[in-house]
Amino acid sequence: MKIRRAGVAILAITLCLPSLFAQSATKANPIEALAGKWDVHCIQKGCLMFTDVLIGDPDHPADLKHPQYITIAVAINRSDRKPAYIDFDLPPDADRSQGFFVAFAKTSKDGKNWKLTLVKSATAHLVFMSCNEDSCKGRAVKGVIPSDGEPPVDLLREFLQNDQILFLFTRNGEPYRTMKALFPFQRAYQHLMKTELKQSSK
User: Are 52 and 111 within 8 A, CB to CB?
Assistant: First the structure.
């Protein structure tokens, strides 16, 4: 079984849980994070969009006194308005040899609950490019994750087209997972494209 397909199977089993929808916060301001806030910092070369995802699932509830996060950072070039890279910073005690999975999902109303449907073609495995005492970092150069024998995953496209981003990593071989809604990213991205990174009319 290819690693991406294995990841799809694991995520399908472990992430279809309504209680995960409420779990997100940022280090700087938990209230803003619960609203899904993305921060934006721009310089001459381009802009960096970033947010934190609170790690927690029904098997491993988040400890709000000692929370841990996955940080997502999307760097966008000013020249072509395309990603230079998309980074994911995970906890330093993640199993370094295993890397981690990123997946995307659509949500739909199912009676009184919400139904989560994984986008199987958008599940990808990343290796850690570096680890230190603070975090282990995975990077998608130009926002694209290549895959042997399968189409690459264009992360920006998936960020803009889907409802949720999901993560799976392991500590001491035990799976940890979490997720975050993408609607706030989509709003922040569209605002950025209309303001700071607006195309000049020539």
Answer: no
Q: Tokens for 34, please give them.
A: 């619960």
Cα dihedral sign, 24-135-186-147: negative
Report the alpha-carbon distance of residue 178 to residue 59 in Å, rounded: 11
Dump pLDDT digits (tens) for 108-131. Answer: 887 888 788 999 889 999 999 999
Domains along the chain? Answer: 3-194 (2.60.40.1880)
Inter-residue contact 119 to 182 (CB < 8 Å): no
Radius of gyration of the chain measured on its C-alpha atoms: 17
Tell me the C-alpha distance between 152 and 146, whole Å.
Answer: 4
